[in-house]
Each structure stands twice: as structure tokens, then as C-alpha cells.
Amino acid sequence: GAVVSQHPSWVICKSGTSVKIECRSLDFQATTMFWYRQFPKQSLMLMATSNEGSKATYEQGVEKDKFLINHASLTLSTLTVTSAHPEDSSFYICSASRDRGFEPQHFGDGTRLSIL
Amino acid sequence: AQTVTQSQPEMSVQEAETVTLSCTYDTSESDYYLFWYKQPPSRQMILVIRQEAYKQQNATENRFSVNFQKAAKSFSLKISDSQLGDAAMYFCAYNTNAGKSTFGDGTTLTVKP
């Protein structure tokens, strides 16, 4: 149980385009979803916390106009990287939570984003 | 705010040997949860083991066990009989009651055949 699906797993696109990444909880309702960015051999950097039906809470230093997050339902959150540039190239991971501390984060498999 | 510190950026172990990865954390809460996650080269995050702070007994999952010292705010992971498939980056994580996680910087474990 507690499966999270993240798509796409890998995307390459031209500079200036927008890219949407989906995160779905397949067999449970996720009260909260988290979006992380990870550089090679580094830790997960929390970008934003997404709650169903409300605006996402962004971490300090994360541009909310660049990284648009929509949590439309209890099973789907999307991250849109708008007008992407090469410096946005990274590995993005989502996780879903039922807001219970004893539960681990349920992670998607991540999205490798490359902007040319 | 909670912080999680993993002081060993890299560790190596001989196959079949035992290795311990260290983790310390800082919190003013009395009720929280601790986890170790493994991230192999595939970059998928995999739960290794979890520990509830109110439980004194150290958690064990097959070859993986923890040494949880609540007063010292220490949560180390011991891997026994190391296997090649254990090679990965390991992250220590702290959960609040609401389920929000704070991660350490990670320890890259190399297993030598």
C-alpha cells in the first residue's frame, strides 16, 4: 500500500518552455504533498508543501511564480516549472503524507528535468 | 526548528562486515519519529527503518538496527552482514507529529566486495 506515482520520470525540453510534473497517490488520500529538489549527491531540499484545496506554502528562496504548485484533489498534486531555464535542471521528487508523524514519507520515483 | 546532522559524508564497508552510520538531531519536542531512508543509484527513496521517540526499545528490521539514545538525541543505523545491494546514499529523517520531515545531508555508503 501507500504507492505514489510521479510522471514523467525524465523530461528534456528547450529553454523557455513550461514543464508540468504530476504526483499521484494511487491507493490513499494524501492530505499533504511535498515537493523536493535534489542536486547530485546532496540531500532533498524542500521546495513547498501542498495541501488539498489551499495555496501551497513555499520555502524561503523558492520562487512561487517559477514553481507553480496545484493540489487539486486528495490524490493529485502538480508542479509546473514555468519558463524553464538550464539552471532549473535538476531531480525533482514528490512525497505524500497522511499527516501522521509515525508514517514515513511516501515518495514518487522522481523526475529528472533537463533544460537545453 | 528541527535540525538533523549526519557527520559522515562517506563511509565504506567490506562485504559481510558491519557498519554504523551516525545521525544526531535537535528538537524541543518530546514526541516525534525518526526514520532512515536509502537512496540507491536509481534515486528511489526507500524506507529502511523507523523509530518512535516514546519507545525505548531500539527498532530492528532484519540486518538493519538502530541505536536510539533519546537524551543524547542520537539515532545511528547499524547494517550487519553488509551486501553489495546496500550501497546507496542513506538519509536520516525526523518527523513532527504532523508528518513533516526534516532530512540530514546524507551518507554515501560504499560496499567493497
Helix content of chain A: under 10%
Which two chains form the greatest contact, residue counts included? Answer: A-B, 23 and 27 residues
Contiguous helical run count of chain B: 0
Low-confidence stretches of chain B: none
Shape of chain A: globular
* Main sheet specs of chain B: 6 strands, mixed
Radius of gyration of chain B, CA atoms, in whole angstroms: 13 Å
Q: How many DSSP H or I helices of chain A?
A: 0
User: What fraction strand of chain A?
Assistant: over 45%
- Beta-strand share of residues of chain B: over 45%
Q: Would you tell me the structural class of the helices and strands of chain A?
A: mainly beta
Helix content of chain B: under 10%
Number of strands of chain A: 11
Oligomeric description of these chains: heterodimer
Question: Largest beta sheet of chain A, briefly?
Answer: 7 strands, mixed
Q: Distance N terminus to C terminus of chain A?
A: 37 Å
- What value does the Rg of chain A take, in angstroms? 13 Å
Structural class of chain B: mainly beta
What value does the average pLDDT of chain B take? 94
